[in-house]
């Protein structure tokens, strides 16, 4: 089975979910979330990634985005963040789950011939083409409510790693093209 993103219309806007292997809660530390944000920002600046909505949860990342050659951008984003997140976990003396997380990533890599020693992200990502305004608004609402439904915050804009702040007219962590 191919693990590449197959997008029916690569010029469209997509709802993308990147999931940590075994749904491991890897994004419980600010450093790891910041690494993902910096990587997304790089893709915005250098690879033409347009970001309309986003949210980092403890074990997955949601993006509403478009880009020329989006499958390549997503591949590069996953490859870069995977390598650097594993290194950050290894180097973090305060990471109490270090050996468990590394064991999870090593076990996942052992099942795949396309990975080195560690696999951070699940192979297949979840992607949905947002072909109507209704679909776009529905996914944006879903993405922003994620942290509320998980019980982390009372209001979506309270979650720092989300575009909900931008939509609430506050300064968010990443540049977002607001959907009117």
TrEMBL record:
SMART domains linked to this entry: Y1_Tnp (SM01321)
Record domain Transposase IS200-like: where: 9-146
Origin: domain of life: Bacteria
Database matches in InterPro entries: RAYT_transposase, Transposase_17, Transposase_17_sf
Protein name, per record: Transposase
């Amino acid at each position: 089975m191919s693990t590449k993103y197959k997008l029916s219309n690569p010029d469209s806007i997509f709802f993308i979910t990147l999931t940590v292997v075994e749904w491991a809660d890897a994004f419980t530390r600010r450093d790891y979330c910041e690494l993902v944000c910096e990587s997304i920002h790089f893709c915005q600046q250098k690879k033409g990634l347009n970001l309309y909505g986003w949210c980092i949860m403890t074990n997955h990342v949601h993006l509403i985005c478009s880009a020329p050659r989006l499958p390549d951008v997503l591949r590069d984003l996953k490859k870069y963040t995977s390598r650097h997140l594993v290194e950050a976990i290894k180097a973090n003396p305060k990471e109490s789950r270090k050996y468990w997380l590394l064991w999870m990533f090593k076990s996942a890599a052992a099942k795949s011939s396309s990975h080195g020693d560690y696999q951070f992200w699940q192979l297949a990502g979840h992607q949905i083409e947002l072909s109507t305004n209704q679909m776009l608004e529905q996914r944006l609402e879903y993405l922003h409510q994620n942290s509320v439904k998980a019980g982390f915050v009372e209001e979506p804009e309270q979650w720092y790693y989300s575009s909900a702040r931008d939509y609430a007219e506050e300064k968010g962590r990443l540049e977002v093209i607001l959907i009117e």
